[in-house]
Design goal:
The complex is a heterodimer of chains A (about 475) and B (about 475). Chain A has about 475 residues and is α/β, with parallel strands linked by helices. Chain A has 22 helices and eight strands. Chain A has three domains: about 190 residues, no CATH class; about 140 residues, Rossmann fold; about 100 residues, Alpha-helical ferredoxin (Fumarate Reductase Iron-sulfur Protein, Chain B, domain 2, Orthogonal Bundle), CATH 1.10.1060. In chain A, the strands form two sheets. In chain A, strands 4, 5, 6, 7 and 8 form a five-stranded mixed β-sheet that branches. Chain A has a three-stranded parallel β-sheet with strand order 1-2-3. Classes of the chains: A alpha/beta (about 475), B alpha+beta (about 475). Bound molecules: flavin-adenine dinucleotide and iron/sulfur cluster (SF4) (2 copies).
Chain lengths: ~475, ~475
């Protein structure tokens, strides 16, 4: 990767995704072991279950973050990232990770296994690509490595087509978003349908009129992942599924659905962990105050942030993927009572995505200038922005400030791309700014394009 | 002002309040280079983030000693360039981190630090069945300090007036670092001339407001919304003066013209009734009385040629308010360039003002949707133009000046609530010449020199 403006840790994650197939570079052997014996190899009727580059290894990431928290003050995350390749050379990386964090990882693997169990139980026919599953590369997109993402996505498309994949069911909402929104934008001729797990499950439960029984009584709440709720608008399916499980008392957190208090992935936990943590604590308090015994969600990144957060604050509240709740209930007797036509609202709260003519610097600059010029500096976005709030409204790490900085960068004001990038990387891509902006700017996506411009602009000694 | 004085001042401030509160990286400075006027871009040379009264005191002591300009800033939503530096080598004093709020129901006040937002103050009061009446449309982000320094008003101004009407006491730090406490948090006090009014509306040119004790009001028992649709804009103007003349004081009394309604329909796709003008009135009062007043207000509207609807159902009320709620978003989405005017005219001249404004837009051929808090004679003509077209920019500027002059001719004011800042300096001097007499400038200049002998407070604003 020829872009040295990006921090070491980002390059580590991006290169691993591209070359090894998962963010941590754990490798295919470990990554696919959760599925052995569960699913046939290759698509079935064109359909695959897609595990993605996070879920199968996320326990290792969680382990690494727990370690980081302990080492904080002694070692920075970029130094740890530098240790990765050295450990790889010594041949102790994968085995080391397994020995240290294999136990935690099993909990994430279980989510995948539960999801597959549920889909099979509902009669969904599908296969899995095992080692051949190409990583979506969404991290490249997240970190603004858009040229690399485009190139990578083209390869993924060809590979999937070659294997006869026509339909993807993903458990990870970030990769579901990539296939639903970013692939059609970046890859010409992309026609593969993609769904998030809960979309398929809700539809099947409705069609088959199923009523599930948990066999115990629990008080739960649900944390809407921002990608799932705000970006692809899947909200009602989740409430519907939960309402079909007897034994569950459901408590809605104050910020839910499209107004979820999810403070996003955005990659912040890699680039600026203390800030990511500060933001997650606020949400954790909110979820705790619901009085629920268990928290469910549908995203590996959310699961990790919540699990580590609850632990750091010494709250004994379990966090699981919703797939595990449904699987638990489906292991009991299932009633078929009232088949119905599945009709779920698709929320569409975000404005139109900005589109540069190409990823050339000129075209990126032209689009970014035109759009950020429209920003009226009303600051409404800042009120919602979790990073601004966590930093006492520090303008340069707020939604509005980021619009101003991107504008300054493309207009040639004396700001440094690397430093602008640092401030753009402090955004968690939660999209709350885009949802509120009266002018209709897709602030979140402009930030991703701004990251790309800062990376490729080649100023401040950064080779393009 | 010498750059060396600035750097000496910054070293001293860093030493006294901690270096983490002093920002000098260009990327942090550029983020603060604009306010919501969007046209006066100047990055400060340093930003000091005030976390306490002591931080403010140190900045004003050191800056005064070394003659360094200081620009106080709340949330930077000034629409006139008031919160960006007008001169080089300025320190921007960011008060947003100082945001404590304490409600005292027994004594009927709320104490807020300068950086608390108007909405946060209002929400705090609502927890106890009270509210804070001034509600600038920017209340979710505008700070108490900024709102006081601008003497902000809002929708409820028709009944409840502006910030000035709600202040019991204030603490202000003046150049040199001295703290002045003005007033008491009691409903009646008097000693000597009212210095509160001196600082209210002073746009940061005399000192820094650090906290204020504000009156609160019980929540209205009942609110009913009335919408009147008119086929001539003058009739809407007539209805407004008629309602006031007959002795009714609705909580809000808003006017929207045809262009505004059209733009809301076109841009946001809202299904709102089309007419030459719309008047929205919120009538509050005890359950027993409110409908009687609603009847009278409807009568006044109908006798002026309007068709009316009324509702107390929350959803219907929202529907009736849709056009007003979407007005700013629609206008800013439709036009990349908007000059937001803010004139006030005597209520008896409202009809003439509307007629003259209509002539003006026809003469120049630019769109100029008008909406505003017409209940207190305050109109916001939004002059829309293409910033890339020099001819349109010229025309928009001329219209801006002529609109201000019209207000002066009609015995009104060039600014109802947005203030003077940089944008309205010239018009302000014209208004002073026309109506206030030269003695006014002399007196205020002497006061300024007395409080700020080195001219460090927000230089380049008003006429200072
Ligand atoms: C979308 C939108 C809608 C608006 N609607 C309204 C409206 O309905 N009514 C209305 O009145 N205004 C309105 N405004 C204008 C603006 O929001 C108000 O003037 C607001 O009160 C400014 O608050 P702020 O915290 O952003 O102040 P800033 O913009 O940061 O500062 C404004 C002025 O106050 C000074 N200042 C700030 N804090 C202090 C302090 N603590 N001590 C001394 N001086 C200080 C600054 O130096 C500057 O001169 C609107 C603006 C926008 C963008
Ligand atoms: S800038 Fe927008 S997307 Fe980024 S953290 Fe703030 S609100 Fe979320
Ligand atoms: S809400 Fe939109 S227009 Fe307002 S400051 Fe944020 S990005 Fe700019």
């Amino acid at each position: 990767m020829s872009t040295t403006a990006v921090p070491q840790i980002v390059r580590f994650a991006a290169e691993n995704t591209r070359d090894v197939g998962d963010v941590l570079g754990i490798g295919p052997d470990q990554r696919v072991k959760w599925a052995r014996g569960l699913l046939p190899r290759g698509p079935v009727n064109g359909t695959i279950f897609y595990a993605g580059e996070m879920y199968p290894v996320m326990g290792n990431a969680e382990g690494a973050f727990r370690l980081m928290r302990r080492l904080e003050g002694f070692m920075n995350i970029n130094t740890l990232a530098k240790a990765g390749p050295i450990m790889k050379k010594l041949g102790i990386y994968t085995t080391g990770a397994k020995a240290l964090w294999g136990g935690i990882n099993e909990e994430y693997e279980r989510a995948l296994q539960d999801a597959v169990f549920v889909l099979k139980k509902l009669g969904v026919e599908m296969g899995y690509l095992f080692e051949d599953e190409p990583p979506s590369g969404v991290a490249l997109h997240t970190y603004g490595l858009l040229r690399e993402f485009k190139e990578h996505a083209k390869g993924v498309h060809e590979k999937l087509k070659e294997m006869g994949v026509r339909r993807i069911i993903a458990l990870d909402p970030i990769v579901a978003t990539a296939f639903k929104l970013y692939y059609p934008e970046f890859v010409e001729g992309w026609e593969i349908e993609s769904y998030h797990f809960v979309e398929v499950v809700a539809k099947k439960i409705a069609e088959q009129g199923l009523k599930l029984k948990l066999g115990r009584k629990v008080k739960i709440t649900y944390h809407d992942p921002c990608y799932l709720a705000r970006t692809i608008g899947v909200v009602d399916e989740i409430r519907f599924i939960i309402s079909r499980i007897e034994g569950v008392e459901y408590i809605e957190p104050p910020r839910h659905g499209v107004n979820t208090g999810c403070s996003g992935d955005g990659g912040l936990e890699l680039t600026q962990p203390p800030l990511a943590r500060k933001i997650s604590y606020e949400r954790i308090e909110e979820l705790r105050e619901t009085g629920a015994d268990l928290v469910y969600t549908s995203c590996p990144a959310c699961m990790m942030m919540l699990r580590t957060g609850f632990d750091s604050l010494n709250y004994k509240i379990g966090v699981y993927d919703l797939a595990s709740l449904i699987a638990e209930a489906m292991r009991n007797e299932i009633d078929r009572v009232d088949p119905m036509k599945p009709e779920f609202k698709r929320y569409n709260v975000l404005p139109k995505s900005p589109k540069p003519k190409s990823l050339s610097l000129e075209d990126l600059a032209e689009m970014l200038r035109r759009d950020t010029d429209k920003c009226k500096k009303c600051g409404f976005c800042n009120v919602e922005c979790p990073t601004a709030n966590a930093l006492d409204m520090l303008e340069s790490r707020s939604a509005r400030g980021r619009m101003t900085l991107i504008n300054s960068l493309v207009r040639g004001d004396p700001v440094r791309p690397k430093e602008v990038l640092d401030r753009l990387y402090s955004c968690v891509l939660c999209g709350q700014c885009s949802q509120i902006c009266p002018v209709g700017l897709h602030v979140q996506e402009l930030i991703i394009y701004g990251r790309a411009y800062a990376i490729y602009s080649g100023r401040a000694g950064v080779p393009s | 002002m010498l750059a060396s004085s600035l750097s000496n001042a910054l070293s001293e401030i860093r030493r006294k309040i901690g270096k983490e509160k002093v920002l000098t990286e260009p990327e942090d400075l550029y983020a603060y280079s604009l306010d919501a006027s969007t046209e006066h871009k100047t990055p400060p040379s340093a930003v000091v983030r005030a976390y306490s009264e002591d931080d403010v005191r140190v900045v004003l002591e050191v800056a005064n000693k070394r003659k360094v300009p200081v620009v106080p800033r709340g949330s930077g939503t000034s629409l006139t360039g008031a919160s960006v530096p007008a001169v080089p080598n300025s320190i921007l004093l960011d008060l947003s981190p100082m945001n404590g709020i304490e409600v005292c129901i027994e004594d009927g006040y709320v104490m807020a630090e300068a950086g608390a937002t108007v909405l946060q103050v209002d929400q705090e009061c609502r927890k106890y069945g009270f509210f804070f009446p001034p509600d600038p449309a920017s209340s979710r982000i505008a700070t108490i300090g900024g709102a006081l320094a601008e003497n902000a008003g809002g929708l409820r101004g028709a009944k409840f007036g502006v910030m000035k009407n709600w202040v019991l006491a204030m603490e202000v730090i003046v150049p040199g670092g001295k703290k002045i406490r003005i007033g008491e948090p009691v409903y009646k006090w008097r000693w000597g001339p009212d210095l509160l009014s001196l600082f209210i509306g002073s746009e940061g040119t005399l000192g820094v407001i650090t906290r204020a004790w504000l009156k609160i009001h019980p929540l209205p028992e009942k609110v009913v919304r009335v919408l009147g649709l008119f086929d001539r804009i003058e009739n809407a103007g007539k209805a407004i003066s008629e309602i006031r003349r007959r002795g009714y004081v609705p909580m809000i009394l808003e006017l929207l013209d045809r262009e505004t309604i059209e733009i809301v329909r076109e841009v946001l796709g809202y299904d709102v009734p089309l007419g030459e003008a719309m008047v929205i009135a919120d009538i509050d009062g005890p359950e027993e009385a409110v409908w009687r007043i609603v009847k009278e207000v409807r009568k006044a509207m109908e006798e002026s040629g309007g068709e009316t609807t009324a509702s107390d159902d929350p959803e219907e009320m929202e529907q009736l308010y849709l056009a007003r709620q979407g007005a700013y978003a629609a206008v800013t989405r439709a036009y990349p360039g908007v000059l937001l005017e803010d004139i006030t005219v005597p209520l008896s001249k409202l009809m003439i003002a509307l007629r003259e404004l209509d002539k003006l837009r026809k003469e120049y051929g630019l769109r100029m949707p008008i909406f505003g808090h017409a209940g207190d004679g305050n109109l916001h003509p939004n002059i829309c133009f293409d910033p890339e077209d020099p001819e349109q920019v010229r025309k928009a500027r001329e219209m801006f000046l002529k609109t201000g002059k019209l207000a002066i001719e009609l015995g009104g004011a060039i600014s109802g609530e947005h203030g003077i800042g940089i944008s309205k300096k010239d018009l302000f001097l014209e208004e002073i010449k026309a109506v206030r007499g030269e003695g006014y400038i002399e007196l205020v200049t002497q006061i300024k020199e007395l409080l700020d002998p080195n001219g460090i407070m927000n230089p380049g604003k008003l006429w200072f």
